[in-house]
Amino acid sequence: DQQVKQNSPSLSVQEGRISILNCDYTNSMFDYFLWYKKYPAEGPTFLISISSIKDKNEDGRFTVFLNKSAKHLSLHIVPSQPGDSAVYFCAAHGGTSYGKLTFGQGTILTVHP
Amino acid sequence: SQTIHQWPATLVQPVGSPLSLECTVEGTSNPNLYWYRQAAGRGLQLLFYSVGIGQISSEVPQNLSASRPQDRQFILSSKKLLLSDSGFYLCAWIDGTGGVEQYFGPGTRLTVT
Fold it and tell me: Which chain B residues are Cβ-neighbours of A46 within 8 angstroms?
């Protein structure tokens, strides 16, 4: 039972345009959502998060939107840069204890110059 | 500032051999610690987590075990490796005060031959 799903395995975007990465979840007990960025052969790095009581959080070029009724969140990157090319994971917290996160399968973002 | 270390960075082991991967965290006390595995083309699978010395919880039945002999040390082990144990192993931590963002180490690439 996959509680967090990223249905797009890959996304290709032109430099300067907007990248939109999507994530769906099933567990209504999740109370916090996070996005991580991962380069090959490195550990994921934390990007941005959002509490379930909010619907938007912005940090520079990165904005996360949460639609609780649809159990859907998205990460917007504007403008996209070639250095943003990486695997992006969404993760959800809650529904369990001890700070455990449930991760999606990841989306490979490629930003073309 | 906090730092997380993992070693070795890469490892090639024959089937049936033992395994020991080590993770240490600096600059924090009483962290929650986590072991994840990323199989080729897959997402992050939580293997074990620990909220304190000697306290280990297993998420997935498997050929691996974990131990936490010291507050900031987390070890992943196996007595006999299987081919299916190949993957990228990641250690992560959060402080024990209620934060949700997990911070990851650089990872270990394990290839079982």
Answer: 101-103
